[in-house]
Structure formats: structure tokens, C-alpha cells
Amino acid sequence: MLIEEIKKDLIIFQKEKRQIEVSSLRMLLSSIINKEKDKRMLLSSKFEKEELDQKSKLDDKEVLEVIFAEAKKRKDAISEYEKAKREDLIAIEKQELETFKKYLPAEMSDEEIKKIIKDILEEKKITDIKEIGVVMKEAIVRTKGLADNKKINMFVKELLN
């Protein structure tokens, strides 16, 4: 399981005294635990303790969602720090993002994203920029988190203009 791989890597990074990776993975594990607690709260009225313990564990798909969310936070922080010209903080955020990328599937290429968008435009017969929301919603579903939403938006605008 993915969470076991993260815990194993945390131990390796601790032994190698790689502090940024250690703190990144600790934050990630904390986020995963918080998500498990939230899930447990939602399920607590439906199951008994033993079954609840099992049902509240996150599967790999849910762990990936947490990792995607944490990676997105880092990307957003990097863009904010770039505006503020804080090179020291940018470097840390980039290193944390690289740590998380190890657990994420590879992002789609620009060509793959454009093909998906073109398919959506043809299927739904969309030619007007006013319907960008419809295209964006469908594109996000079809890319399954493997493409940056900003990039999707840029390509949708490009193809509709």
C-alpha cells in the first residue's frame, strides 16, 4: 500500500538526515491521518468499533487524493512566493513538491490534454467560450487529477478562440 511506502521512505530519510523530506512526509502523514479521522467520524454512526477501524482506513486512491491536495498547496505556495520574490521559501516548497511527486502518477503530456479537450468539444459540439465551464468540468473528470487545472483552462481557451 502507498501509505506503507511513505512510512518506509520516512524512516530512510530520517536515517539519512534529510530534514526537508522528513518534515514533508510527516506533514503528509498527518494529513492522511486527519483524512482518516474525518472518514471515521462520518462512518461512526453506521458501524461497530472493529468494523469501523477497518472501514476508516484510507485506500490507495484516497491517499493519492491527499497527496494531490498537498502537492497543489505547494504549487500554489510557490506561485505566491514567486510574486513576493522569496527565493528561500520557493526552494523549500519545490523540494517538498518533489518529495510528493514520487508517490503521484506521471502527469499527462500537453498533447494528451489537448486531445481530451478536442474530444469533449466534438462530443458536446461546443464552439463558444461561454461554455468553458462545461468543458472544464468534463476535462477535469477525464484527466483524473493527472493534469494541472490551470493548464487545462489555458488549452480550453486556446482551442475555443
Structural write-up:
The chain is mostly helical and 161 residues long. The chain has 2 domains: 2-101, Uncharacterised protein YqeY/AIM41, N-terminal domain (Hypothetical Protein Yqey, Chain: A, domain1, Orthogonal Bundle), CATH 1.10.1510; 110-160, Orthogonal Bundle (Arc Repressor Mutant, subunit A). 77% of the residues lie in helices and 0% in strands. It contains 8 helices and no strands. It has helices at 2-15, 19-43, 49-55, 60-83, 87-101, 110-124, 132-143, 149-160. Helix 4 runs antiparallel to helix 5 (87-101) and helix 6 (110-124) crosses helix 7. The radius of gyration is 19 Å and the shape is globular. It starts with a helix and ends with a helix.
